[in-house]
Design brief:
The complex is a heterodimer of chains A (109) and B (114). Chain A has no helices and 11 strands. Chain A has 109 residues and is mainly beta. In chain A, strands 2, 4, 5, 9, 10 and 11 form a 6-stranded mixed β-sheet that branches. A 5-stranded antiparallel β-sheet of chain A has the order 1-3-8-7-6, with no helix packed on it. Chain A starts with a strand and ends with a strand. The mean pLDDT of chain A is 93. With 114 residues, chain B is mainly β. The chains are: A mainly beta (109), B mainly beta (114). At the A-B interface, β4, β5, β9 and β10 of A face β10 of B.
Chain lengths: 109, 114
């Protein structure tokens, strides 16, 4: 089973801080890399699906980059807000979907 | 808006009971999935279905079965619940096969087996 590693496991930041976390995945047979946000008591929601090496995607204050050759993706949040508090999941797809354990972000007002 | 609903948010069952978890999606998606999520682990795939009456085992199918009699509904069945099946269960759907499609998730069912 291919491992997808996310770091850190948890993160506490102050409102207004910018933050980033990492998803590492096997670099062979790459199809796509997904990022999801999972807020407490809600359904996980897709943020990005990335397919090309060097891809950069942005949605509001959140952006992500992808390096398929070295097997990592970064998720950045600029100017964190309390509503950004959630668990951020990445998933690597090479025909099967493999999820990391997530990074739990807490943004303190 | 795609909506994936699950029959219960919280469920408490006794060891040995037969448990049904229901999932319904309203966007005519072909593929449906059942995952479980445990602390410190990523979502693990139990079963998936790419068409009515079709099913494929995921990584951890032991102790589970599934049913897909209608396109919109995918049921997960615990034949004889055990305490190690206490977990959060998530259902998801995608329009077509392939890793390029985002998964649409339900809100999850937290199952406790005592």
């Amino acid at each position: 089973i291919l491992n997808v590693e996310q770091s850190p496991q948890s993160l506490h930041v102050q409102e207004g801080d910018s933050t980033n976390f990492t998803c590492s995945f096997p670099s062979s047979n790459f199809y796509a890399l997904h990022w999801y946000r999972w807020e407490t008591a809600k359904s996980p929601e897709a943020l990005f699906v990335m397919t090309l090496n060097g891809d950069e995607k942005k949605k509001g204050r959140i952006s992500a980059t992808l390096n398929t050759k070295e097997g990592y993706s970064y998720l950045y949040i600029k100017g964190s807000q309390p509503e950004d508090s959630a668990t951020y999941l990445c998933a690597f797809n090479n025909n099967d979907m493999r999820f990391g354990a997530g990074t739990r972000l807490t943004v303190k007002p | 808006d795609v909506k994936v609903t699950q029959s219960s948010r919280y469920l408490v069952k006794r060891t040995g009971e037969k448990v049904f978890l229901e999932c319904v999606q309203d966007m005519d998606h072909e593929n449906m999935f059942w995952y479980r999520q445990d602390p410190g682990l990523g979502l693990r795939l139990i079963y998936f279905s790419y068409d009515v009456k079709m099913k494929e085992k995921g990584d951890i199918p032991e102790g589970y079965s599934v049913s897909r009699e209608k396109k919109e509904r995918f049921s997960l069945i615990l034949e004889s619940a055990s305490t190690n099946q206490t977990s959060m269960y998530l259902c998801a759907s995608t329009p077509l096969a392939g890793g390029f499609y985002e998964q649409y998730f339900g809100p999850g069912t937290r199952l406790t087996v005592t």
